[in-house]
Amino acid sequence: QVQLVESGGGLVQAGGSLRLSCATSGRTFNSYVMGWFRQAPGKEREFVAAIRRIGAFTYYAESVKGRFTISRDNAKNTLYLQMNSLKPEDTAVYYCAANLLSPIVVTSTSYASWGQGTQVTVSS
Predict the structure, then answer these.
(1) Which of 49, 52, 58, 67 is buried most deeply by CB count within 10 Å?
(2) Cβ atoms of residues 47 and 37 within 8 Å
(3) Each residue's pLDDT tens digit, 57-85
(4) What's the rounded Cα separation, in Å, for the pair 5 and 24?
């Protein structure tokens, strides 16, 4: 079991940037596909981005493609999400998650371990 702790959320104006971090502990970080998901009030949790073990392959939701960048530092056991050109519709609680077994990276059910979430609020 891997433990995940997100940080870096906050309040930012539209057009601004934030960088989320997800520190991990427990099993070997580079064994996992890592993902970011988000959940806005009254909405279901949705996929944002994912990165495979070595980091050469990344995946993004259409709504964030070109604005967000997912990365990982396997030496530091840390996952990142750089968010640029933020929009009010990006407001949500952002969760990092770890996927050990499933080849499917865009569905939340593929991820067995989750962090507690960090709030991102984008004002217009």
Answers:
(1) 49
(2) yes
(3) 999 999 999 999 999 998 899 999 999 99
(4) 7
**Pairing relationship of beta strands 18-26 and 2-7 according to DSSP bridges:** antiparallel
Rounded to whole angstroms, the Cα distance separating 103 from 115 reads 20
Q: What's residue 109's pLDDT?
A: 93
Of how many residues is the chain composed?
124
Give per-residue burial for 20-50: e unless 16+ CB within 10 Å, then b. bbbbbeeeebeebbbbbbbeeeeeebebbbb
Q: Are 1 and 26 in contact (CB under 8 A)?
A: yes
Q: Are 88 and 12 in contact (CB under 8 A)?
A: no
Are 118 and 4 within 8 A, CB to CB?
no
